[in-house]
Amino acid sequence: MRRRELLTGGAGLLLWGALGGRAALAQTLWEQSALKQILKRGELRVGMEAGYMPFEMRDKSGKIVGFDVDLARLMARYMGVKLNLVNTQWDGIIPALLTAKFDLLMSGMTITPERNLQVNFADPYVSIGQTVLIRKGLIGTISKREQLDDAKYVIATKLGTTGDIAARKYFAKARFKAFETEAEAVLEVRNGRADGFVYDLPFNTIYAGRYPGEVGFLNETFTDEPIGWAIRKGDPDFLNWLNNFLRVIRADGSYDALYQKWFQSTAWLKTVNAQ
């Protein structure tokens, strides 16, 4: 028979006090959780920057569409609430999350130790790497990204991205032009005013397919970057729900269907604005 021991006296009171304190803390965290506020409000507010194919971009009618958008829509459906997409400039997207302009940052953001000091990330939902687009005149001359690490070349990047950081690390000898948007940076390459554009594999693959012959594509990733959803710190309930949501949609096939739609097919290209 298993022996049972009953704590009495001061030890018992201390134990019950500790358990009661933990329960109170858990209840307080839940009351303050963004998830609780979302359910109470009846609306999930998702922050993103519309301009990153195929994660989020605008279609020809001006509507924001993409992989993240479909995931956010599915997420809201599981919560039983409405979805509100909050389009936000990239350089202010983390401050906007921290000041509660939205509940969840869902914008193809790479998980980095520096960003993790400011926000908490859910488990990665996709992984990408940096690649290079090159101008038309270099097609056939440049076949490996190491060849661009030269002072005679100009590399375009998007400000505040891991592509910008990687470019300055891997092409330290080159000159740089940094831009606010992907569209500005790749246009610089198409017009021959920059020799290369360092950015994420999905975007560069799609762009090269959209403008064949106008840009070249070095199909070699030279970083490995996990992408995750970001939330404000101190919210274990919301983090737990997001990680379990991801597990469920991976298990039931919903995730795979959306991944195939946006990453393995280009049928959607004709519905979006050219960049």
Kindly describe this structure.
The protein is an alpha/beta fold and 275 residues long. It has two domains: 35-127 and 226-271, Periplasmic binding protein-like II (D-Maltodextrin-Binding Protein, domain 2, 3-Layer(aba) Sandwich), CATH 3.40.190; 130-218, D-Maltodextrin-Binding Protein, domain 2, CATH 3.40.190.10. The chain is 40% helix and 19% strand. It contains ten helices and 14 strands. It has helices at residues 9-32, 34-41, 67-79, 93-98, 113-116, 162-170, 182-190, 201-210, 236-251, 254-263, and strands spanning 43-48, 57-58, 64-65, 82-87, 104-105, 120-121, 126-128, 130-135, 154-158, 175-179, 196-200, 215-218, 225-227, 230-231. The strands form five sheets. It has a five-stranded mixed beta sheet with strand order 10-9-11-8-12. Strands 4-1-5 form a three-stranded parallel beta sheet. β9 (154-158), α6 (162-170) and β10 form a beta-alpha-beta unit. The longest helix is centred in the N-terminal third of the chain and has 24 residues, at 9-32. The relative contact order is 0.17.
Compile the SSE list and pairings:
Blueprint: H1 9-32, H2 34-41, E1 43-48, E2 57-58, E3 64-65, H3 67-79, E4 82-87, H4 93-98, E5 104-105, H5 113-116, E6 120-121, E7 126-128, E8 130-135, E9 154-158, H6 162-170, E10 175-179, H7 182-190, E11 196-200, H8 201-210, E12 215-218, E13 225-227, E14 230-231, H9 236-251, H10 254-263
Parallel strand pairs: 1-4, 1-5, 9-10, 9-11
Antiparallel strand pairs: 2-3, 6-14, 7-13, 8-11, 8-12
